[in-house]
Prior knowledge:
This protein is an alpha/beta fold and 480 residues long. Helices cover 41% and strands 12% of the residues. It has 3 domains: 3-92, no CATH class; 107-330, Type I PLP-dependent aspartate aminotransferase-like (Major domain) (Aspartate Aminotransferase, domain 2); 333-477, Aspartate Aminotransferase, domain 1 (Alpha-Beta Complex), CATH 3.90.1150.
Amino acid sequence: MSHALERQAAERTADDPAWSPGVRAAVERGRARAGAATAARARVRRLRFDTIAIHGLWTAEAALAADGSISEPLVPSTAQHFESADEMEAALAYLVPSWTYSRMANPTLAALEGTLALLEGYGTDLDVSCCVTGSGMAAIAMATQAFLVPAAAGTPTRRARPSIVASAKCYGGTFMLFAERFAAERGVAVRWVADPLDLDAWQAAIDDGTRFVYGELPSNPGLAVFDVAAVARIAHAHGLPLIVDSTIATPALLRPLALGADVVVHSLSKAIGGSGLAIGGAILSRPAIATRVGPPEMAADFATWVKLHPFRDHGPALAPQAAHAFLVDVRTLRGRVDRWSTSALTVATWLSRHPQVAAVRYPGLPFDRGHELAARQMQLVDGDEGAGDAHRYGHLLGFEVAGGREAARRVFDGLELIRRATDLGRIRSVATIPAISTHQQQGEAGRSLAAIPDSLISLSIGGEHPADVIADLDAALSRD
Ligand SMILES: *Cc1c(COP(=O)(O)O)cnc(C)c1O
C-alpha cells in the first residue's frame, strides 16, 4: 500500500453522504488498514538508520500476512483484483489504501517509497512523502514541471515570464532538461547560478516569474557544494521551494530536508542502487512546501500530489522488478557509502600528489574550495566523532590530467581495473570523461559555464581495495 494513498484514506470519513452504503463500508475497512500501517510506520521511524534501511516497513506482522515471506514480495502484476464494485469505486476515488494499477502504484514500489521516505527524513520529525519514478531524470522532470503552471490571476508571478533559478554545476541531463526542454521549447527563462557558493548570486537571480530554486550537492561531476540552509532561506523569503538533487551524497551522508530544503530528488540508478541492475528515481518532500503556484494540496503534500496527479498522467512508472532490486541494495547503503568514501579520500589524496595530475576535486580534501561547507553539511549518518567515522565525503571525485584533452584520453584508455563507462555509484570503480559523455550535449559554452574542462576525468570509487585502484591509476598515469 502506498504511503500516499494510505494517508489519504486515513483522512477520509466513511460517513460522507455522497457515497453509497457499500462504498462507505469499504472506506471504513480501508481506514482500519491505514491506521495499522500508520502505527507500524511510527514504530519503525524510531529505529536507527541502518535498521530502517534493512527492515523498511516490512514488519513481522507484514511478513505473517504474506505467507511469512521474510523479504518484501516482488509484485510484478499490472493490476489489483477487487472484491466488489464498491471496493473498486472506493479505490479509484483514492478513498481506501489500494494500488489499483502499477502505473499509479504497486505494493513493491510502496515498500521502496516507505523506506526511502523514512531514510530521507531520518533524524527529523518530518513526515516525508515519496514518489518513485522510472529514472532519476523522470524524478527531476516531474518535480520541476509541477511548478511550471500558470500562477493565480492578478499575482505578479502571473504577469511575469516564468523563470527558474538553478546551479550551473549540475548533472548534464538536468542541464539539458532546463536549457532545451524548458527554455528553448517552452520559453522559460533559466537563470544559472555559476558559482553556487555565492549566496548573492542566488538572491539576484530570483525575480517575479521564478517558480523554484534548484541545486545539486555535491554536483556531478564538478563536486561543487552549496549552503542548503542559506539558499533555502533565500528561496523561502520569496515564497519559493528549494529542490535539491542529492544523488551523489545519498541519505547516508546528507538529508537536505533537515537543512530546510522543500523537495529532494534522487537517481536511484547510482549509489542507492549500487549493484547497477536497474534505473530509477525518487521525489521526496517535506510537508507544507513553499510555492507560488499550484493548488493547496500540491503545497501540503508535494510528492503525494505529484504521484496522484501529474505522475499518473505522464506515466514514468518504475518497474516493480527495479524497485525490488533497489530495496535489496538500500539495505547496505550506509556501510557501502562509509567504505567507498574512505577509499575515495585515500585515492583523492594520492592523486593530489601525483605530478601528472593538474587538479583534484573532492570535497573531502582539506584544500578543496567547498571543504568547510561540505564538512558542515555532509556527515556519515549515525557516525561517531570518537570512533572516527563521522566525516565522510562520498564516492565521487574528479581529477584533471596535466597535458589537457589528449593526455586525459590516454590516461583513461590506460585503465584496466577501473571501468570506462557513463556511470557512477557502483560497487566497481568507474571512470568517465564528462566532456565526451554526460556533458557532451551541452556544448563548449555550457561546459564552460558548468566548469567542466576536456581534461577532467570523473572517478567513482567502489568497494575494491583502494591499493588496487591506486595501482591501476598509477599505471595509467605513467603510460606515455
Ligand atoms: C545520473 C544522475 C541523474 C539522472 O539519473 P538517471 O537515473 O540516469 O535518469 C540525475 N542527477 C545526478 C546527480 C546523476 O548523477
